[in-house]
Specification:
It is a single chain. By secondary structure, this protein is an all-alpha fold. Helices cover 54% and strands 0% of the residues. The protein contains 4 helices and no strands. The chain is elongated. The model has no long low-confidence stretch (mean pLDDT 91).
Length: 91
């Protein structure tokens, strides 16, 4: 019998925010777009569609699908290599 379910969203257990910020910057740089830390912060919690629209304000010719593909690939590769960092107190 299931007694409880915990759904992790936006860093409840896993500390992925810092990693995500860096990967947003890295994806842009890999594609030749100087995504800044402020831009990465502005992308937190937005959908890919909204994030692409935001980035087009700075980089009109950026391929949004490719940008998010690189971001997701970077996240997968990092987690496979290093695991997912836990938030303090969750060990």
């Amino acid at each position: 019998m299931i007694r409880a379910v915990l759904f992790d969203m936006d860093g409840t257990l896993f500390d992925t925010e810092g990693l995500g910020l860096q990967l947003e910057i890295d994806a842009g740089v890999e594609m030749g777009y100087p995504v800044t830390m402020q831009m990465a912060h502005d992308l937190l919690g937005v959908t890919e569609k909204a994030g692409t629209k935001y980035l087009h304000g700075y980089f009109p010719d950026l391929d949004g699908a490719e940008y998010w593909r690189r971001f997701e690939q970077g996240m997968r590769e990092h987690i496979l290599r290093n695991g997912t960092p836990l938030k303090a107190g969750c060990a």
